[in-house]
Structures are given as C-alpha cells and as structure tokens.
Design brief:
single chain, mainly alpha, Growth Hormone, Chain: A, 2 domains, 19 helices, globular, disordered C terminus
C-alpha cells in the first residue's frame, strides 16, 4: 500500500534511465492530449457553429479511431519496436492536433469532415503510444519496482492533465484580449489549440532517446492450458458497457453542457475540470485499503455506484455548482475505476488469456464510448442534457447491479483461472 503519495516522486531516483524517459514522455503528452486539447477542442467545435449532434459524432470518431488502432498497435510494437512505435504514435497524435485548428482555412465543402478526420488521427496515434507504453514500462522495470513505476505513471498522467486543463481554460481569455475578439469567436480557441502540438512534440524527444527492449528476464511463467473463458469475458464486457455510461456521458458532454447551457467562461470550465483532475491525482491511493477490506469486485461496485450518483447534481440543478460537483466527482471516481478494473480482470482471467482479454475489453470500451457519444448527441437534441445524464445514471446502476451479482456468485467470473492469485494495487 502507498501510505504517502509524495513518496512516489521520491522513488524516481531508483528507476533506470529508460523508466525515467517513459515517465517524462507520458507526463508531457498528458498535458497536451488530456489537458489542453481535451478542453479546448470541444469549445472550438461549438464556436464553429456545430451543435450537440456533431459534438457526439466528433467524440465517437475519436473512440472508433482508438479502437481501430488498439490491436494493430500491439502487433506493430512487437514487429518494429516499442519505443519506435510510441514515438510514431506521439507524432501521429501531434499531427492530429495540428489538423484541427486548420479547419477554418479549408474550403467550405471540406470543413464538416475535417475535424472528424483530425480526431481519428489524433486518437489513433495516442492508441499507438498507450498500447505500447504498458509493455515498454514492463520491460524497463524489475518485479521489485514495477508497481511503483505504474503507480507513478498514473499519478504523472493525472498531474499533467491537471496542468493542461487549467492552462487550457485560461488561454482563450488571454488570447481574446490579445487579438481583440470576444469569447464567442472561434479565434481565441483556435490559437489556444496550437499550444497542444507544441507541447506534444516535446514528448517525442525522450522516446527517441530510449533503448529498445523486448522482454524482462525472470518474468516468464508457465501458461495453463484451457479454452478461452467466453462467459467471464462476456460478463466483463457487459459490466464495462453498463458501468462506463456515467463517466462516458460526462467525459463526452460535460464541457459542452457547461459552455452552451450554463454559459460558463472557458476559465471557469477549466478550473472545474482542473479541480477534478487534481482530486484524481490522489484518489487511487485509497484503493489498496478498499481492496484489502472487501476485494476488488466490491470496490468496483462502490465506485460504479458513486459514478452513477455523481450525475445527480447535473440532473437536478441547472447551476454551475451542480455541474461542478458532478464533474469533479465523476473525474475523481473515473481515476479509481480503471486501475481497479484492470486488477479485477487479472484476478478473473488465466495468465495465458490476459493479453487477448485486455485487447478485447479495450476495443469494447472504445466502441461503447463511441455509441454513447453518438447517441448522446441525438438524445440532447431530441430531449435535453438532463435526460442524457439520467440515462447514464440508470445504465451505471445496472452495471453496479451486475457486479453485485458477480460478487455474490464469484464462480461465474472466475472460470478458466487455473490458479487464482489476488493482486493488490500499488503494493
């Protein structure tokens, strides 16, 4: 268990050169991809005159781009090298970021499709980086310091997102005064978006300085025999599809809701989302104790219910305070959801099927986010934001109900595990 969050940072000196380069790259790229770009690109799309339907399609295209590149990215990393493919992925992500602010310079017939195309390139590039990051960090660490390295990478990603979100929220106001245009014009947002690729391209430098690694000696295990566990994986995909609904609806539409419905300033939106990301830096630290007390299944149940109920302020209160409470709580719990889900998956699936299951579940999550984004835009147009958030709440409650069943009947989800080993988070 990690008792002191700041001890993570003091442990950096214990890692070798390649681990430090990987951590530096993911922190820098998070400032751009999850921070500046994630905040400003939705606001920019809205300033171009597009509505919720297009915002939904825009978000769905990114999820589909990530999903489409998930399995090819792993194959390319094995064939051409992990660090090389991470650098190519970061470069492709940078290219997608450059494309978006060029939208207004294109002919009218090309403008509708260009943001979608840029989103696919950006998300597909990030898939190449992130899918190869996991085995690269595995290969660069030893069994003794691996948990600390993964915990620190998660913390640096949240910290980078926090820095980028706050910066992204301040940029439009500063640039609007500089160019003499209001915040209802796309110009301040377009100029702010250019900072994203400038930061992202810096992340390529440490990746190019890494040594290529393939495997870590001493990590090989004898793989148990047995058929692929269809029922456990099917139940896991169903759980993910339901439980993800609350956080996905907020991730896809909370920025647009605060901008169009509540007419909050970009700085205020950035502050709210930044506070959520700041809380997300420390939220995973409570997971080891929760898992030890009741197990990872019970922890997933609690986190999923919490994510669902986080949408209640967004549904009931048409006010910045309700939006702030809901967004901050959703971001915080999302930071707890993913590591718990990953460990739960490790517990329920035999060693030989873990990589394949990870790829299948990642693709299912990408497809699910795409559907939520696309259908969510239609729901907002036909009904309201409150209706969409209510649907997200109901689906996530259904996911919590399914996890409650799996906690009571663990045999449904542990089929195919030859030797079950309980794995802790951040030991």
């Amino acid at each position: 268990m990690i008792r002191n969050p700041f001890s993570l940072f003091s442990s950096i000196s214990r890692f070798n050169r390649d681990v430090k380069l990987l951590l530096l790259a993911t922190g820098i790229l998070s400032i751009s991809f999850f921070g500046i770009q994630a905040l400003l690109k939705i606001l920019y799309i809205l300033r171009l005159g597009y509505g919720p339907e297009y915002v939904g399609l825009f978000g769905a295209s990114g999820a589909l781009g990530y999903m489409a590149m998930s399995l090819p990215s792993g194959w390319l990393g094995e064939r051409w090298g992990l660090s090389r493919m991470m650098a190519v992925g970061a470069l492709a992500t940078t290219l997608g970021m450059v494309m978006l602010p060029l939208t207004e310079a294109l002919p009218l017939w090309a403008r509708d499709g260009w943001p979608i195309f840029s989103q696919v390139i950006q998300a597909g590039g990030y898939a190449m980086f992130s899918i190869n990051f996991v085995p690269a960090l595995m290969a660069a660490t030893s069994p003794e310091n691996r948990n600390s390295a993964y915990a620190l990478s998660s913390t640096l990603r949240s910290l980078g997102t926090f820095v980028g979100t706050i910066s992204g929220g301040l940029l439009p106001g500063l640039l609007a005064g500089f160019v003499g245009q209001g915040l209802d014009s796309p110009t301040p947002y377009r100029l702010g978006l250019w900072l994203g690729p400038v930061v992202a391209v810096i992340a390529i430098v440490p990746l190019l300085r890494m040594r290529e690694r393939r495997a870590v000696s001493g990590d090989t295990e004898a793989l148990p025999k047995g058929a692929f566990p269809l029922l456990p994986v099917g139940l896991l995909i169903l759980f993910v599809s339901l439980s993800q609904a609350a956080s996905a609806t907020c991730q896809a539409f909370c920025n647009a809701y605060m901008d169009t419905e509540l007419t909050l300033s970009p700085a205020t939106i950035g502050l709210i989302m930044g506070l959520g990301q700041f809380a997300a830096i420390f939220a995973p630290m409570v997971l080891p104790r929760m898992a030890r007390l009741r197990g990872n299944g019970w922890t997933l149940l609690v986190v999923t219910l919490g994510s669902a109920f986080s949408l209640i302020p967004l549904i009931l209160f048409h006010h910045w305070l309700g939006a702030g409470l809901g967004s901050i709580a959703t971001l915080t719990l999302a930071a707890m959801y993913m590591p718990t889900l990953q460990v739960y998956q490790m517990e329920m699936i035999a060693q030989r099927w873990r990589s394949l299951t990870y790829g299948v579940v990642s693709m299912a999550m990408g497809l699910n986010f795409a559907l939520i984004s696309f259908v969510g835009g239609l729901v907002i147009t036909g009904w309201s934001y409150a209706t969409l958030f209510a649907l997200g709440l109901l689906f996530s409650v259904g996911g919590a109900g399914l996890m409650g069943l799996l906690v009571r009947k663990p045999g449904l989800i542990t089929q195919g595990v030859a030797a079950r080993q309980v794995v802790g988070i951040g030991d």
